[in-house]
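Duplicate of earlier report; Solute carrier family 12 member 10, tandem duplicate 1 input re-posted below.
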Amino acid sequence: MLKYFQSSVSWWLSTYSQNGFFCAHAGTRGTVCGATMGQLTSKSASDAAESNTVPGIRFTSHGDPPPPHSSPRTDPGDSGPNLQIPGTGGGDSERQEMRRSSIYSTIDMVPKLDFYAGSLSPRHVRPSLETLRRPTPFDDGVWVNNSELSIPDVLETEGTEPPAGQKAPVRFGWVVGVMVRCMLNIWGVILFLRLSWITSEAGILLTCVIILLSVVITSVTALSVSAIATNGRVNSGGAYFMISRTLGPEMGGPIGVVFSFANALACALNTVGFAEVIRDLLQEFGLGMVDAENDVRIIGVITVSFLLLISLAGMEWEAKAQILFFVILLISFANYFVGTLIPPDEEKRSKGIFGYRGEIFSDNLMSKYTNGNDFFAVFAIFFPSAIGILSGVNISGDLKDPATAIPKGTLGAIFLTTLSYLGICVTIGGSRHASGNVTDVLLGNSTDGCKGVACQLGWNFTDCMDAVGADGCQYGLAHSPKVLGQVSGFNYLITAGVFAASLSSALGFLVSAPKVFQCLCRDNIYPYIGFFAKGYGKNDEPLRAYLLCYVIAIAFILIAQLNIIAALISNFFLCSYALINFSCFHASITNSPGWRPSFHYYSKWTALVGAMISVGLMFAFSWRVAVATVCIILFLFAYVAYNKPQVNWGTSLQAGRYNIALSYSVALSRVEDHVKNFRPQCLVLTGPPNQRPALVDFVGAFTKHISLMICGDVLMGQSRVATETDGMVKWLNKRKVRSFYTPFDSDSLRGGTRQLMQAAGLGKLKPNTLVLGFKTGWREASEESLVDYVNTIYDTFDSNHCVILLRMMDGLDVSDHFGYEGEKLFRRHSPLSWSRAPGDATGERMSSQQVRTAFQNNQGKKTIDVYWISDDGGLTLLVPYLLTRRKNWGQSKVRVFILGDEQNMEEGRQEMISLLKRFRLDFHDVIVMTDSERTPQPKNLKRFEDIVAPYRLNEEQQDGASESELKTLCPLKISDKEMEALRTKSNTKVRLNEIIRRNSEHAALVLVSLPVPQTDCPMSLYMAWLEALTSGLHCPVVLIRGNQQNVLTFYCQ
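Output:
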């Protein structure tokens, strides 16, 4: 029994393992089914059978088929071996659920989330249509019931679970991971060190306006971020990841660079703020090191080095530090608001703090700008306090559920921090300019010579208000950054809050910048940055990117000027906010079915307004910095657009292009045809385009950026797999040919071409011209193949389409150039020898190899000779004109040859020149051929007779048979009667070839009017005419014929 089982498994493994799925019928005992995991061979199956455990195989009994909604299993009453997949026994309910089948078939599976979780590397794969379509197998005449075929096992990617003994990565919820992190970054140094100064400059009202305007921008951006974040799984990379996956790498790449840089600057900003506080504390105790500015530099470098060590310790330690900072900040805020309720003592009054007094609030209500400041200058310094809303987004890869955490955490942080900013702005307005001298109290009721609202409260700060520099007022909103500490209940708790705010923000940005930059580096959009993509540890920490961010932060810490750094950061973040909002707007406006955010509380129009406000504020803050930012973005954009990285992220730009193409195609269908708008829309029978590059280049030369080009590949007796089709498209793109590639299955070239001409294209974007190569080896071709080829030309004429034939003296097929046995032109063949499986090196080389052709070379001042023998509507003139618009053919001189006689030669020439001028065709010369009716040379006539000789009917073939019967039996044969009737036409073709060879020996290209055969013209004779017209030339020859309708006009309407 075991031996029979092994042989059965071996046979079925070899049959079904090709697509990773197999079912084995084990005699009368049951059916063995499963999926090959990796490369499972019959030998491994046999070895597993010996141990009664077959990997990837399930056993089901014939006696009791399983219900259709459950996985097949062995009948408990069966005495045969019970075979199961290791690790998927009956106790593993999850695996059993995963293998549940549809009621239609046990191979067909019910919908599962696992099939959609990760489209790039899915953990589980559903059976293909090929698998579902397979016929039910038989074994020794016994039919294996389809209901007994097992569901294929799933394919699981490696690394979905951490190895045993290794800790899982740290993941955060919406409170700790997003809301707390955003609040800590919003509560930065601007709040503690600059908000009081901003209030003194802009006044309480305008400061509230600044805060609310910032909230509008951040709230709209947060809504856009929430929509994008809930439209699919967001990985690490934050704003860069969202913008690049929405707008594409062209916009995502520049923002990734700028946003990473801006985060590094934000780290420097908060570090400088912390260093200023430490410096002031040291100066209070007389412990200065060098001077005020260099002390900030020294303290800043030491601080950012300490923060780097925390970051290198990992996200877990960084999160614990952030929680500690958050608690300190809450205590600091409580201390401040309680302090505003405590009546100020004499020392506080001497520093300009009088509590809630209406006189002071009224005086501080309006703006009092100094030192040339204005509203936008003050706004630019405040705005960095609003840049923390993306802190949670930037570590999206470390969140448990980014789609839920980002909206809740970000919007919650904006709401709470807005209340705190407004509260501090209003309450801090009870302070004014002061000297800090307790002796400046007014004695008596006299206020003569006293300035300011403090006079009404019994204090005279006139002297310090009139003085400047060191003698001026050292306290109050406009002069002291320590007002919050002076108002609070306990000053040093505010200092602790400054420490917590600056350090937490600096630490947050020091973590965010490397995370974003790591994602950018891994996408390989820009060169030379892949070194920073490497991650370490369970959380994939970007240690190298940490060091880069550290170096950038130190460079800007050395500036040691908080206001300068703040103005730079504002522009970079406003640019990021503008693109985030535009991403949301663009994704919404394109109506892509893939845009389905679960967060619905957003509007595409508010997103657009948010983007416009952000751009406007960039230029309002500092137009110079804004222009520099835009230039950087454009430079980075141009680089990505030029290199076109090979990524496919399903962006809204792709959806937008589809919408635009669809809208214009529908609109074009309503436009009536006009001769002025005629374009040669070509269906080019190239077969595989990479085997006939000359044909592709010729048509591409006069259709690129002008008209439609479709490379048609009629597949006779074969099929083209998707990977090969993609390879053809990539070959065309690499060659910079603007063309579609359309393979089509058909029994014959004639049938396939007819159906392509009818079905290819869309609306008015349909072919009106058929382009094919000349059948060079037509005399050696089979009768069936030649008849198929000629009938294709005949059908094109009958369908009122234009026809173009290209003949290269060396032939069009270059497959032999690569050493492959390629298909010959339009010949029925077996599947191509270069058909390949994905990843095959030979096939990849074939699809990417580029052969240079004559149509890619610069032709210099060579001539393009046009033999306009028959008036076809002007296509014969239009194609060379379009060629001369290309760079390679721009200097070529076009000569037009026409028929005429010696008596009227000059008159005919002038008439043609006049016509060409009215057509606005700047051709070089017109030549009249007056000797076209002469008899051809005998040797040329002899050569033509030799060509048609094999197709002449001899007397024996004609005896006893009618002409119609002969045409049916021998369609290529030429009777003597037909030969004599068409001899004059034949001689004309031979004579014309003599003229062409004499006049166009050194031409770069020759175009000749293609003769239209009558229905009674023998096919072989017609091919002999084409051979006679084009033989003996060393340059490419084009036989061209319009559909007898005008394609040129000299009228304006």
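Residues 189-229 form the longest helix (41 residues).

Merging into the original ticket.
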